[in-house]
Amino acid sequence: MAVRTKVLLDGIDVALTDVDALEHRAGDLSPVWPLLGRLWARRQETVFATGGLGAWPPIGAKALLGGSRSPLVRTGALRRAVSDPTPVESGPLHVMFGVDPGDAHAMKVGNIHRHGSGRVPVRDPMPRLRPTERDSWMGVVRRYLTNGATH
Mean pLDDT in the chain? Predict the structure, then answer.
């Protein structure tokens, strides 16, 4: 049986161009960092608006007397630090959002709340991504790899 090589090779130039573009995009994901940063900031606003996605213990009476109305927002500094859409670290294949390690105050306060202490219950200001959030983030990367979409 004869193989029709002309039919098999039709479109090979387009396929090679597509593979080259995919290879290029896979080597540098940084064009999607701004979109992921906006998703991060929106997600963190949800974390704070819902009391740690419903996981934070209510604020204590002593803190209420001190003027706090909601956990982790007495001054707003930690909330701003963990909600910033600007990466604290990034490269072509990695990105990290959250508290800038150079912000000693936010790091200290964030760690106290993340792990708790004798007086402070555990209230993680940056809980793990939920499966739907992870799927959304992976969808952003997938769309970029597939067709170069960055929005």
Answer: 85
- The amino acid sitting at 72 is L
| DSSP per-residue codes, 13-52 | HHHHHHHHHHHHHHT--GGGHHHHHHHHHHHHHHHHHTTT
DSSP three-state, residue 26? helix
Q: How far apart are CA 69 and CA 53, in angstroms?
A: 17
> What CA–CA distance (Å, rounded) separates 60 from 73?
13
**Contact (CB, 8 A) for 97 and 88:** yes
Taking 90 as the threshold, does the pLDDT of residue 37 lie above it?
A: yes
- The 3-class secondary structure across 82-143, one letter per residue, is HHCCCCCEECCCCEECCCCCCCHHHHHHHHHHHHCCCCCCCCCCCCCCCHHHHHHHHHHHHH
pLDDT 10s digits, 89-101: 999 999 999 988 8
36 vs 39: CA distance, rounded Å: 5
Nearest to 32 by CA among 151, 136, 135: 151
Rounded to an integer, what distance in angstroms lies between the CA atom of residue 1 and that of residue 4?
A: 10
pLDDT at residue number 119:
80
Joined together, the tokens standing for residue 6 give 């002309």
